[in-house]
Specification:
The protein has a domain of about 30 residues. The chain is built from two helices and no strands. Keywords: Membrane, Transmembrane, Transmembrane helix.
Length: about 50
């Protein structure tokens, strides 16, 4: 990942006319689901240890 690629990514994000909200929301939901799953597993294992 070069500095130029990072700059290009930011330019794409700033250009909201071309911004694909559907894809962005989908990615955010996937990330939240992934974090939720990890959190659920951690809580479950902690409950097993506590009992």
């Amino acid at each position: 990942m070069k500095q130029q690629d990072t700059v290009r990514t930011f330019q794409v994000i700033e250009n909201k006319d071309d911004f694909n909200w559907g894809a962005t929301i989908t990615v955010m939901v996937l990330i939240l689901t992934f974090i939720g799953a990890i959190f659920y597993v951690l809580v479950s294992s902690l409950k097993d240890l506590a009992s």
